[in-house]
Amino acid sequence: MHSKNLTNQMIGAESLVHTLLISEVDTCFANPGTSEMHFVGALDRIPGMHCVLGLQENIMTGMADGYYRIARKPACTLLHCGPGLANGMGNLHNARRARAGIVNIVGDQATYHRPFDAPLTADTEGMARTVSHWVRTSINAADVGRDAAAAVQAAGAMPGQIATLILPADASWEQGGVVAEPLAVPPAPPIDPHAVENAARVLRAGRNVLILLADQATLAPSQALAWRIAHATGASLLASYTNGHMARGRGRLQLERVPYGTDAAIQSLGRFEHIILVNAKPPVGFFAYPGKPSTHYPSHAQLHVLSRPDQDADAALQALVDELGAPEAPIPDPGPRPEAVGGAPTQEGLAQTLAALMPDDAIVSNESISFGRDFYKLTHAAPAHDWLNLSGGAIGDGLPVATGAAVAAGGRRRVISLQADGSAMYSLQSLWTQARERLPCTTILLNNRKYNILIGEYRNVGAVPGPTAMSMLDLSNPDLDWVKLANGMGVEAARATTLDECADLMKRSFREQAPFLIDLMI
């Protein structure tokens, strides 16, 4: 229990730590700098915060994202001034798209030092607003605790928000800090009964209806309700492509996503006359292409919002179940569990091998980019697991998200990274934190020695890559030695050139309470 100290003998940084702890923020992903030393000192003196060190700020923000997706509560990050926040913005962008709740603590110049325009002085608030739902700067020590409680409240608001608290050094070191009581997170906006009635009317008419699920609606409770509705009405079910967290495997729906590619997505959605959105946005392309539409659904299709992203998908689907009188319906059986496949690595073979060997209750962090787009259909019969996707398109989140998820699971669940080699180079420092924390993380490094997705995108815009373009998309000059890179970060690693070798290494890694990297040559 962290008691309040209402005297003037507490510094601002101490009130910050106490307030975070009584607000149930007990994990800090940290990359501290000079301006944060009083906060670091307070973390040293006050027990209760699990401090996880990382080697670059984009690792820390990605870890906090992965932590939230599994723990369903915010962690905090500790970032150094405006440039530190800037380093972390790529994965804050991804976290915002994944609807993750994060409290960023950004140290900053002392208030009286800012007018001197020291080298690290920056428009920290301005940068924070581009990736945050809530931004505040504490002006003095007495405000820090109150501001921290407000930041935690904002981060916890449904469906999860990015809150950034900027902490000037003098507000951290001055006396006069006061611990603030936790603030109640406001409830989600209520479901509109008219939206429920309209969705029921559309479903009863039964004219090529798609129920599109996203975010909370792709977790197990909502899936069960959505299946009751689909089973009773004949509607189709799909998930949005960029869901941050999906419940998958045996006992969950065999739920596919809207395809990534424009042509495939347009074909997949072309027959639907009505699309009911459950915490989802209308499907649009990642990018624009010459002569192709931005939207993937037919121009004649009618969109119906059952629930917005900030509303409770479970409540919305339950209301629709009740309105329709949809009876209980068991989740369809996905069939027998696949067997591991040998031979040369293929997408299908790796997916089957993963489904055959993954432990129960595993977590998969998927940044396989182009190689893994078809993994879903071959992993439905795997044991029940959580699947975490890249949500915002800013590559480099796979390894940090996996690391944060493992921290959230307390080291009790195996985390498997399906990781493209090019994007892994954005955040390979995550391996060091995995080794430091002895996390049960298995990375399957999909090594094709190129930015393969960009070769496809080059063709998508109507061009054929020539020698100069191909040289800019090639990672083989010189080759990246992932076994040595992992070993240099303290992680055991081995190379596999066949799926037989990959399967043996997977089984070996799953027996160890430590990280392991498989350099799979594809």
Automatic annotation (TrEMBL):
Mind telling me which Pfam families this protein's record contains? TPP_enzyme_C (PF02775), TPP_enzyme_N (PF02776)
UniProt keyword terms in alphabetical order? Thiamine pyrophosphate
**What Gene3D superfamilies does the annotation carry?**
3.40.50.970
- InterPro entries in alphabetical order: DHS-like_NAD/FAD-binding_dom, THDP-binding, Thiamin_PyroP_enz_TPP-bd_dom, TPP_enz, TPP_enzyme_TPP-bd
Domain (Thiamine pyrophosphate enzyme N-terminal TPP-binding) spans 12-115
**What region holds the Thiamine pyrophosphate enzyme TPP-binding domain?**
380-519
- State the family it belongs to: Belongs to the TPP enzyme family.
PANTHER family from the UniProt entry: ACETOLACTATE SYNTHASE LARGE SUBUNIT ILVX-RELATED, THIAMINE PYROPHOSPHATE ENZYMES
Protein name, per record: Acetolactate synthase large subunit
Q: Lineage of the source organism?
A: Bacteria, Pseudomonadati, Pseudomonadota, Alphaproteobacteria, Hyphomicrobiales
